[in-house]
Automatic annotation (TrEMBL):
This is DUF4193 domain-containing protein. Residues 21-34 have a biased composition (Basic and acidic residues). The lineage of its organism: Bacteria, Bacillati, Actinomycetota, Actinomycetes, Micrococcales. Residues 1-40 are annotated as: Disordered.
Amino acid sequence: MAVDYDAPRVTPEDEPNVAIEELKADKPGRREAAPDVDETDLADSFELPGADLSHEELQVQVVPVQADEFTCMSCFLVHHRSQLAREKDGKKYCRECES
């Protein structure tokens, strides 16, 4: 909740006395809270145009790690050897993870 630090402070003596019955009274024009809607049910109703890919298969060619690359043992990404920051006990770490 945002706080306006520039607003004048109100002490308990300065606060207006409002009867609890007035606060509890149902005021006209007051809106009721909307019921929670499950997001997964809502997402199922969306249909994107031309997005029927149910019969498609992805074909990705996996290339093994090259001789000038290494796998970082912290982020598990494959980097070029120029990104090698440290090697300890045969484990290699990239510059991004070491910074």
